[in-house]
Structure formats: structure tokens, C-alpha cells
Amino acid sequence: MPALPVAATPTHCPYCALQCAMTLTPASAPALGPTTVPAPDAVPAVPVVEGRAFPTNRGGLCTKGWTSPTLLGSPDRITAPLIRGADGAFREAGWDEALDLVADRLRETRRLHGADAVGVFGGGGLTNEKAYLLGKFARLALGTSRIDYNGRFCMSSAAAAGTRAFGIDRGLPFPVEHLDAAETVLLLGTNVAETMPPFIGHLTGAQAAGGLIVVDPRRTATVRLTEDGQGMHVQPTPGSDLVLLLGLIHIVIAERLWDEAYVAERTTGFSELRRSVSVWWPERVASETGVPVPQLREVARRLASGRGTYILTGRGVEQHVDGTDTATAAINLSLLLGLPGSRHSGYGTLTGQGNGQGGREHGQKADQLPGYRKIADPEARRHVAAVWGVDPAIIPGPGLPAVQLLQSLGQPDGIRAFLVHGSNVVVSAPNAARVAAGLAALDFLVVCDFFLSETAALADVVLPVTQWAEEEGTITSLEGRVLRRRRAVSAPPGVRDELWVLHELADRLDAPSTFHTDPEAVFEELRLASEGGIADYSGIDYALLDAGEAAFWPYPRGSVGTPRLFAQSFGHPDGLARIVAVAPTPPAEPLNVDGGLTLITGRLLEHYQSGAQTRRVPELAAAQPHARLQLHPATAARLGIDDDAVVEVVNGRGIVRCRARLSVDIRPDTVFLPFHFPADESANVLTLDAVDPISGMPEFKKSAVLVRPVLETVDARATLEVAL
Amino acid sequence: MRVVLIGYGPVGSRFVDEMLPSVRDGSVELTVIGAETTDAYNRVLVAELAVGHTDLESIIVADRGGAAASGVRVLTGTTAVAIDTAAAQVVLDTGERVGYDRLVLATGARANIPTLDGVAKPQRDLTHLEKYGPALVGRDDDLPTGITVLRDLADAERIARTVRAGGRIVVLGAGVLGLELALAATQAGAQACVVHHGDIPMPRNLDRGGGRVLQAALRRAGVSVVEHSRAEAVSFHEHETGDRSFDALITADGKQIRGDLLVLSCGVGARTELATLAGLQTAAGIVVDADLRSWSDPAISAIGDCAHVVPRTAEAAELAVLPGAPTGLIGSGWRQAAWLAAQLRAEAAGLLADPAAPAERDALVMLKAEGIDVVAIGDVSAEPWDPQYADDLDDPRGPQRVAQWADPENGSYAKLITRSGVLTAFVCVGMPRTAAELTLLYERGAELPADRSVLLRFDGPDYTPALDSDVFAPGATVCWCNGVTVAHIADSAACGNTTVACIGKDTRAGTGCGGCKGRIADLLVHLEATGGTTSAAV
Q1: Is the fold of A82-149+379-544 the same as that of A597-723?
Q2: Which of A259, A359, A704, B272 gives 20 to 30 Å between its CA and that of B189?
Q3: What share of chain B is helix, strand, coil (3-state, %, to 5)?
Q4: Which residues of B touch A664 (CB under 8 A)?
Q5: Over residues B310-329, mean pLDDT
Q6: A interface test, pick of B39, B481, B484, B520 with most A CB neighbours within 10 Å
């Protein structure tokens, strides 16, 4: 391992996919500049963070980024492997004992129940190297097909839609800063002002041109950026996004706003699309979405108004059982308008997790091999098997996507032993109570994490691993740019890198091929494995990245990479984009019946994903200590709920108990919960594990719920105290 | 199972789409008989086609090629002239007989021809049908030159010629279709005059208040409206060639309303002649039970504009006049098509189908016109101060209540009729967002907020919380990236941080995207000017 730097280490933020550039400086070293801000709650030993000039964040960080070093000094850190004893309590153990136990139990499970009785669950926060090696480990060391990851809950719908339409799924097929020159930006279901704040610096051009259009059932912080003539807020009822998009497409066609030459030269499928939207005239769309006709027309006309138009989707429209089709409708709209591949316009999806892009490219997906290759494709299997030095026949076939994988936990013929890496599924997966029951029914659960997350707390063995600033590797950001993550501090003694953990386990399991522990060596192998694939990294190496090269994939050997995709052709063999006609389907459960409301979930500025990290940052936890239910005052009045009253949010899957926050910033038929909180405040006990038939995305964004006040008698208060 | 569909319009085409899985798996052999040679189009948009706001390709709904490729036998340009119910066969104009196990009639409706001196009006009762036979079946009525209805593509083309020439169109009838045409034609540069005998436009859908506001809106949009005028006759130009064409519409009180084209927009009537000839019971349409099967022959179903759904009960069978009528709305036709197809698919596969038939609902009427928003549903005649009647008070859904908003000067009007807080009818004019939200609430049967005015505010400029209007309120967020409020910055400034850079260092405001640095500077100036107080303290 290289010696630790004594001066500043350039790296990137541990959290979201914007991957803001930052510099970490050892606490003892002098601060670098006038804008250096110490983390107020930081334990002295942690490094000082500073925003670093970079095209995406331009030196800025959000409150999560500024406080991120606190995690490095957290007293909650696990510093030795934990093994659950016969008494049900954890005890600290040595690595050899823990790894021997894990290997024995995995081998035993495989012997008794078959290779597919061992499952692996990865994460979109893992580096490219870890994601790659985890996929290889599952296929070669465990021989299981049962691997998937939490990106299934995040990017799968947009990825499926992008692949179907363009033949390539790179979240933003253009550098982020190209948005600066746009005059119109349509944001569908994304609250970037809270989820990746420095991103909004790239929206100021559209705001100045009056062209920032935000579609959201809530009046979010992002929506506020449209006020005072800077754009428009479109506020459809939850679950009507697809109809809204079909309505916009209808208007674009009826008013002849579409780019005929582009559609003729660069796409196929237009006539099907035209027929499919002929039934979605504006008034019908208004009656199903709640969006008035004049606004529908205004949006359509604005999108078609000329230079510099981008359409961007987020989880709000993608996390549905029709999420792939909804993203497809957004793509269809952008293709009609001639945006993708033009010099000044485009379509993109805003990737959420830190390595949500790279994490979906290198083999931790059930149906995938490195380089965004299909695991069922014989040619792909031959290529990867050759790099691994194994017989293609020993690589298992496609496994199960995340929701089905989790549903199979503890079931007959399902998963008996489960490895979880970088994911807190009991908080982040839909229908969380069912997930917890599944984990409890396992024979053996291993969790690799740096804190005792709610999922780790249920494990039989917890293996403590390194955090971002303690490790080397690469991350691929939301714009498809490969970035270097660098080590700035040493990990606590007793903590190991996941690459080493996988190497040790592979060794104990007599796995074929090699499992490098050095990140650069793993990346060198990844390069070869990805070569010729869709996400081709073969021309990228650490030296290139360390020299500051802006490396956007595909980056075949000998090329200079691809900052902007689709200029000449799309990724399908004929070079054309596919317009795929889509139609709405009924929701997975009836909504807004018998006084019920529609629950939508999302994120807060201060927290990241399941909150396993940010809830441990005192400053962030103090700002947002608990989940609060956002609901409209008129709805609250009907239900007899006052601001800050304790309420129960209920459906057939579970109950959330929290306080109410009355706000006119939400539709009266809709309530909102953040999903960062565990136990009684866990929004995902209410969400549905019905999935999109194409992507496997669960239905996070519209759940039927009832909301009721909790009478604050002495008894109820006591119960609440216990519950909270 | 052999299924035959007569009628390949938008409802028939939806039925075909829904049947395709069973056609592909071979469990259903589907034959489609359509009189028109063009692919089915969305008739709702024919007025827009007529004025050139859309084109034919953009309103096509049917995928004839796709259906044929899936194995459907598609016979377009073919008319069914008779149904031999005894033999379970359909007789075509080619002489071919097509056998069926289940027959679905989606023959739709044709425009009504009002009684006008100078315009012939064919009858289609059993006597006439038996006398003239197939000549009257499946055909539309020939109208004199210069007079048209608005139903199909030929009608649209007739109107389009007048619109392109910037001519004058006289529309007889102030229903939705007539008004949409008049508005769209005016917008497209033609002149339009709507003639109707009532007091207000859309009298079947609107109350007086909504009608008055709409009337004013029509005039503002440049449409002339002649109300209280019963049309009696038409007069014609006699051309030297011996042909004649429309000249003027003559009303009972002697007005002569001249124009280049007369569009008769007086409602539609179901096309029932095939059913009538086959001896099936008809009323306002082909009489079918809640499961869409004919009262007279369970092998035959009807959907869409030709179907008159009356649940078959002993009481209903005794009635001289059956209640209800086809809604005339495409939405209910599509619901029926999808439901019936699901039944037949299940039947063909030997499965049990969902027994719940699609609920018949009141017709939601939306005027399609740019700049004029009208949505209405149900009986909106009740007024806020109407006396409460005993039978109404006893209604299990609770007594009827009426809330109303009227601002004629600014063209907005709403009336909400509720029982137990749930909308049973409403009309909304000139308030597009409110209308859209009311529609959702109506469809869901959701309880309205006790303060009904919440619903009216959606279109208001103040549909934003008060907090925001004051950017210096203590709780107002200044820096989104770091969640820093006015109060945080005021506290920091009070501690001596009086520059944007110092504030950034202390609070992190402005250290994300940097977009708020200007607002921080403004705030510092404001704090300086007010001696460090934020708004709430002023």
C-alpha cells in the first residue's frame, strides 16, 4: 500500500453521482485557502475538506459534502469482524476466524442446496473495481447466478429505456456543463436542488431564459428555481407522468412541432408512436393528470422553441411499475424534437448513487457481464471467460433482479445464505417488512459495511470495510466520466478493503482465476473485460486519470473517449434510435379511493439514501433528526391533523408513525415521506414490491395509504417514545 | 371461438387491439367488418382536422396492418347488410355469409338531421328498413350541397374547404361539437356563427351561470351567437347549371342567417338499423344488459355509441321508455371495448372472467378549444339556495349541497354539487387547473376540502405560500445546497461576518452551486439597513 499523502489529496465526494471534486487535507497540515471550511463537528483527527475546481461542481459542495469527513472519525465505526454468538449477541473476532466461518457456511450451503442458494447483493456506491470483482466473485467463487444490486431500485428503468432506444445507457450522454448553454431544461421527477445541489449551477442559463420546467407533484426546492418568470412548475397527480408525456407528444405532433428531417433520418418507429398518441388529446390528458390544457400546450411549444433544449428524468418518473415506459416516453418526446445527438440539446437521466453509472456496467447486475455485456450472449461469455482464464460454461446464466432476489430469501428453492455489500436493504428496499422477514429466514447473512447499519445489525457475520477516503479506485459519474477516488487517510486497524475480503474468500473457496487485491490491478483486468463492450474502458488507465484527463466512456484503446455520444449515430447496429410506442397500464394498486392518499417518497438535502452514513453525522442528524410526513393543510383539516401532530401512515404492508408537516407545497391528494429513516419511520414499509416487467424496478413512487392522527394521550405518547 | 366485429371505428379498433393476444394464440378467430376504407381515426379530433389543426395521419388509431399480421381477418370497405341470428351469420354486401359464435356490434352513431324545410330526413324504423332494405343500412344521409354534418372525413374535408377559403360557416346547434368547430374555425381564420334555440350554449351540460360565462367567452373569441332562434328552413342559391347550394338558414322568427356552409350539429343517434332488422330490441341504441349482451340475443353484444346499456330487470322490462342513452363519449366506449374483450378472451381460454362490468357513469364534457376552458359533468341545475326536499334529505349519500363561484367580468365560474362532501356534479368555466383537479376528485369520489375555496385557488397567482413572498423572512432558505436560512445568516452577520466570503466560511452559504451569492449580498445590505433584523422582527 502506498504511503499516505502528507499534503492535500484530490478526490471526490462519497455520496451522490455528481461526484463533486474535493480535496482532503490532513488535519495537521495548514489549510489551503481562504474558502476552506472546517467541519464543525469533526473529531480533530479527520481531514479537512475543501471544494475543488471541477466542471461539475466548480469548487462547491453541499452540506453533505462539507460534513463528509466526520464519518472518518465516527465513534460508530466497526473496527473488527463481528460474529453473532449462540446468545444472539455480536462478539468481535479475528479476520481469519470470520473469513473461515463465512467460507465454511457458503460452501456448506452450496453443497446442501446448490450454488443458487447463495445470493449476493451489491451496491451503487461500490467502486468500479469492487463492483467488477463482486460480479466475478459471485460467478466464479460462488458459482451462483443470484447476484443483483440496489441500483435496480435506482437506475434500472432509465437504463432499460436508454438501452432500448439508443442501444447504449450512459446516464447523461453529454458533459454536465453542456447544460449551461441550454435555454430550456425539462426536469421530470427530480429534486436536484436537494439531492445534488451543486448541479443547479448548471440550470442558471435556462432560468435566465425563463425555460426551467419542473414536473413534480410537490413544490420542491427545485420547483422554486422556476419562480419569478424563470420557468414553470407542472404539478401532475402521482402516477400520471406517462399520460402527461403522451399528451405532450400528442401536441408536438398535432401542432407539427416535431423535427421531420431528424425523425426520418435518425429514428425508426414514428408511425407507431403517432398512432399510439392519437388517443391522448390534451383535454383527456388534463382530466387524468390534473395539468391544465393551456400549460400542456405551453410546455410542448417551449420544448420545441429552438436551440438548447434538454429533457432530464429522475427517480420520480422512473421508480414505477411503468417506469421503463415512462422514461421511454420522455425519450420519444426528445427524439421527436430532434434533441439526442444534436450539438446543443439532449436527453439524459440523472443517476443517483455515487457510482450508480459504473455500478451498472461491470457485472453486479443479474443479467450482465463487464462492459455492459449481456450474460446470455455467447460471444460476451467467451470474451469475459477468456479474460478470466476459465471455460465459458462455468459462468452461470442470468439470475434474478433485486426485488425477486429479495423475495426469494429464505423461500423453498430460494436463497439460504446471502452476502450484502454496500447496501442497507431493510431500509432502502420496497415492502421493507417483507425484506426483514426474508433476512430473518436465512440460514446465514453476511454484511460488509463500515457502520452497523440496520441490515448489518441483522447479520450473522459483519465484515468491516474501508470508506471512500481510505481506499483507491475509480467511480463513473452521472455523465459517464471515469474519476479517481484516492486514499487520504489510513483505515482504522482491523478494517479491510473489500477487494481483499473477496480475494481471501475466493482463496478459501478454491475459486478459479485470480482475485487481485490491488485496485489498479483489478482496473487493468476490468479494462480487458470491458474491451469491445458497450461500456468500453480499454483505453483508460490510472496514469491517464491521474494526469487529469476527462475520460468519458466509451473509451476504446487508442481513442480519446466520447464526451458527447450520438453525434453521428446511435448504438444500435443500424445507427438509428428506436422510437417505441408505449401505453399506460393501471396502477399496481388502486389509488385515492375511500379517502385514501397517494404516498410518494424521496430525499432530503441533509441525508443520503438509507441514512446509514448521514444519520451518523451530528450536524446533519440535528438538522433532520426524524422523518416527517408532508401533507396539504386542506387534507390535514379533513383528517383532523394539526401541524407537528403525531400521525400514522398506514396500508396493508405496514405503519409509519411520525409527525406531520403541513405545507401547501404538495398536492392535496398526495403525501410525502423521506426514505432515509429506519424502524417506525421507515417509508419503505409502505411501498410496493410490484415491479416493472422490463426493468425489475419496484413501485416506490405511488403507494395507497391512509393517514390518521394519533391521539396524544399519555399512553400513546409512551408508545411513541418507545417506538421512536 | 369465432368472434365477428361489425364496425371498425375507434371503439371497434380498441376492441381488436385488446383481442390480439387471443388471436395470436389461436383461441379466437376474429373477423372485422368495416364500411369505411380509411383506418379508424379518433373522431374526437375530427373538428380539429376540419380546421387544419391536425392531419389525418395524426388521428389514426387503428393498426390495420398489425391486426392483419396477427391473424385478424380485416374486411374494410365492406358493409354488413344483415344479421341472420338463427344461423348465427352476418351477411355482407358481397353476398358472403360470416358465421359467428359471438357477434360484437360497434356500429357507432350518425349525426342527427334536424327537421328543416329543404333538407330530406330519412327514417330508419322497421317499416322503412323493410321497405328500402340494405340501401339504408350502414349509409349516411345525402345532404344538399353546402350543408354538412361533422362526423367523418368527407365532412371534415367539406368544412376544410370553407375554412381554407376564409368563408362563413353557420353552425346549427350549440352543443360541444358545434362550439368546438365554431371556435376552431374562427381561430383558423374563417367566420363562424352559432345558431341555437336555447338561452345558453351547451344547455344539456351547463347551468345558467356557466352558460352565460361561456357565451361571453365565445363572443370574445369572435364567434357570433344567435340564441333563442329555432331553425325552420334553409334557402338555396339556384345556379345556372341547375345545381343549387346552401344560401341561408331561416329561423322561426324570420331571421335569415347567410353563410357558405351550414354545419348541422344537433347531436347523434345510434346506428341500430342492422339490429332493428335482425329483430334485436332497440331504444336510444341497441339495448344491452350490464354485461353488454343484447336483451334479445345473448350471442350478440354492443359497445360504444350504438349500445344503450340498461340493466335487465323485471321492472325495466315493463317500462315503455327505457332510461338512459349511449353517452356519446369515447371514454365509455373504450372502457366497454376493453372489458368485453377481456371477457371474450377469458371465455375463449376457458377461464372465469371478471364479472364486474364497467360502471356506467355520467358523461364528463370538456370543451376542446384554445383559450376557453369548460368542464362539466352531471346535473348542475341545482342552486345554492334551492329548498331542500324531504326525499333529497333522505338520500343515503347525504343531502345535496351546492357551492358556487362566479366572476363574470373575468370569465370564471364554478359550481360544485356535493353529497357528504363528495362531488356528484360540477361545472367549471375559465379556470383550467381547477377544472382538471375537480375532474380528478370527481373520478375518485374523493371528499372535497371543507374549505371549498382551496380548490379555486389553484388558478390564482397566490398559489404560493406567504413565506416565500418575503425573501427576508427568517425561515426563508437562502442557500439550498447547504440548507442555510435568513436567520442563520443574520446570526452570522451579527457575529461580525459582513461579507459574502465570511458568511460562506461561517455558514457554508454560497459554497455549493454558488447561485445564492447575490441573494446573500442583498440580505447583508438589508441587514445593514435594518440594523440586523429580519422581516419578522421588523
Answers
A1: no
A2: A259
A3: 35, 25, 45
A4: 463-465
A5: 88
A6: B481
Q: Is A60 within 8 Å of B58 when comparing Cβ atoms?
A: no
Q: How far is B422 from chain A (nearest CA, A)?
A: 10
ipTM of the complex in this document: 0.87
Q: Which residue of A has its CA nearest to B436?
A: A290
Helix (H/G/I), strand (E/B), else coil: A707 = strand
- The answer to whether residues A600 and A671 touch, using CB atoms and an 8 Å cutoff, is yes
- Considering only CB atoms, B505 lies closest to which of A35, A51, A237, namely A35
**pLDDT per position as a tens digit, A249-259:** 999 999 999 99
Q: A51-63, pLDDT tens digit by residue?
A: 999 999 999 999 9
Percent of chain A with pLDDT over 70: 95
Q: Which residue in B has a C-alpha nearest to residue A276's C-alpha? A: B61
Average pLDDT, chain B: 89
Helix then strand count (H, E) for chain B reads 18, 27
Residues A294, B482: C-beta atoms closer than 8 Å? no
Q: Tell which of A56, A62, A251 to mutate to test the B interface (max B CBs under 10 Å).
A: A62
State the DSSP code for A607: -
- The three-class DSSP label of residue A317 is helix
Q: Which CATH architecture has domain A82-149+379-544?
A: 3-Layer(aba) Sandwich (3.40)
DSSP states along A133-187: HHHHIIIIII--S-EEEGGGGTTHHHHHHHHHHHS---SSSS-GGGGGG-SEEEE
- Whether A441 contacts A415, CB under 8 Å: no
CB hemisphere CA count around A252 (13 angstroms): 29
The pTM for the full model equals 0.92
Residue of A nearest to B376 (CA): A287
Are B481 and A595 within 8 A, CB to CB?
no
Asked if A292 and B449 come within 8 Å (Cβ–Cβ), the reply is no
Give how far Cα B405 sits from Cα of A496, B367, B374, B427, Å.
69, 20, 14, 10
Sorted by where each begins, the domain ranges of chain A are 9-73, 82-149+379-544, 156-349, 597-723
Q: Which residue has the cell 440580505?
A: B523
Residue of chain A with shortest Cα separation from B503 = A35
Cα–Cα dist B193/B459, whole Å: 31
Q: Which domains does chain B carry?
A: 2-110+269-348 (3.50.50.60), 147-266 (3.50.50.60), 373-459 (3.30.390.30), 466-537 (1.10.10.1100)
Residue A591 to chain B, least CA–CA distance (Å): 8
Q: CA neighbours within 13 Å on the CB side: how many for B39?
A: 18
For the domain spanning A9-73, the CATH number is 2.20.25.90
CB pair distance less than 8 Å for B513 and A279: no
Mean pLDDT of chain A: 94
Residue B463 — pLDDT band, cuts 50, 70, 90?
low
Domain A597-723 has CATH 3.30.1360.70: no
Q: Is the pLDDT of residue B122 over 80?
A: no
Residues of chain B neighbouring A60 (CB-CB closer than 8 A): 481, 511-514
Tell the residue number behind the cell numbers 447575490, with chain if given: B518
Mutation target among B511, B517, B520 for the A interface, most CBs of A within 10 A: B511
Mean pLDDT, range A291-320, rounded to an integer? 95
Determine whether B360 is exposed, middle or buried from the number of CB atoms within 10 Å of its CB (0-12, 13-18, 19+): middle
Nearest-by-CA chain B residue for A593:
B444
Distance from CA of A192 to the nearest CA of B (A): 10
Domain covering A156-349 assigned CATH 3.10.450.60 in the classification:
no
pLDDT at residue B392 tops 90? no
Pick from B367, B445, B512: CB nearest A61: B512
